[in-house]
Amino acid sequence: MRKILAGFLVASIAVVLVPACHLDHPETSAAAMSDTARYTNIQWLDSASRNYGTIPEGQKLDVAFRFRNSGATPLVIGQVRPSCGCTIAEQPKAPIAPGAEGQIRAVFNSQGHSGVNHKTLFVTANTKGTQNFSLQFVVQVEKKSS
Q1: φ, ψ for residue 25 (rounded to 5)?
Q2: pLDDT tens figures, 21-64
Q3: Domains and CATH numbers, the chain
Q4: Which of 7, 85, 110, 132 might form a disulfide with 141, Cβ 3.0–4.6 angstroms?
Q5: Residue 94 DSSP class
């Protein structure tokens, strides 16, 4: 009887947890990106182009671009790809509900990048019209004195 009860408990937990895990699965993202019935709208709450002024070489600069899902279906950020290896991007893992807000974050490592730096984050989302967006930032890096 204990084995049957334990088996039932494990099966019940799996039924509850597996659908929740499926939200982060790449197949879900791919399905949302290819199914036009799932397309939604995105509203960028900040400018898609920013100037961060001057920072000293070696400083890591955190950047964030806020957005709102202004459509009627969940917003899936399929990919965020930085223009170079000195920037590491972070994208939302879970879909953004209609009306909810999210952000795309990145960290720029200025070490070895003195001068003016123009960086771009290439974003792909399940949005109507275009699925590709470019978020840009500029920062002047002051060279370390030797």
Answers
A1: -75, 140
A2: 334 445 467 788 888 899 999 999 999 999 999 999 999 999 99
A3: 2-142 (2.60.40.10)
A4: 110
A5: S
